[in-house]
Amino acid sequence: MPLSKRGESGRAKLPIVISQGEPSGIGPEVAVKAFAALDGTVKGRPLQLLGDGEVFRRACAISRVDPKDIGGAITETAHKVRAEPGHPSPENAGAITAAIADGVRACMERKAAALVTAPIHKSVLTTAGFSFPGHTEYLAALTGAKLPVMMLASHKVAPPLRVVPFTIHIALTEIFAQLDSQKIADVGAIVLDALKIDFACSKPRLAIAGLNPHAGEDGTMGREDAAIIAPAAAKLREQGYEVSGPLAADSMFHDAARETYDAALCMYHDQALIPIKTLAFWTGVNVTLGLPIVRTSPDHGTALPLAGQGAANPASMIAAIEMAADIADRRGL
What we know:
Strands 1, 2, 3, 4, 5, 6, 7, 8, 9, 10, 11 and 12 form a twelve-stranded mixed sheet that branches.
């Protein structure tokens, strides 16, 4: 890692590390574009690119970024990559996961303040034997976290929007079996604590979305809201948290509604992601809560058809880097 810059207190500020992600996607391109746009630093923290140096240098050429801009900011992993833009290969799986693992290790050893991960292509990793559904579960295994929670947070959008899908990458038909009052309450508590520590909400407020239309409307449109979700909200209120819900999801996300809460806990993937990708498509950030480290990521995928053209928009990567630095500062890292 390069020498850290010093903050106002004189203490060296730890760097933010950015893992390469899927080398055939746009991850390396948005990483070098963001690095250049931020002049290699954010809030006094140096940026460090983690992966195969040749991947980042090729991304510079594609993105019309002077390779001198990234200079000595590359930390090479032990794995070399052979990648063609738009065509991911299982042969690179080891390099992709090694960059993530190295970044986690740097954070756990307090050699880095935060890890920002470029997007991965899950199906290719699965083909290569990767046993985790995605980043979130892999990060939990690497850090020993018991209940990782995925939050999608807007950056520089007013009023802000932070959403958490309770169930994530599963079929709609499987959602009902996954609903559990205690687990919903456990996830809600992690979100509320993170709002206070990581997002500086002095009195955090959580809104919990109902599952059915109109939050079940007194059982006429489904009983899960009253039988499962309402008791979870009650458990959180009993613990002293400010919680509302279950609420009708169709009226939770307009401007006035978003003023009434700091985060929304939704019951399934699209219920959470559609509003944030509508309101903050270019600046949404994926934040993993419940980890002993700070981890963020752009809220987009590998965009394989766009890779290699130099047209990838780095706005979400820039937002992820800036949010990681904000959280690291609040944690005193």
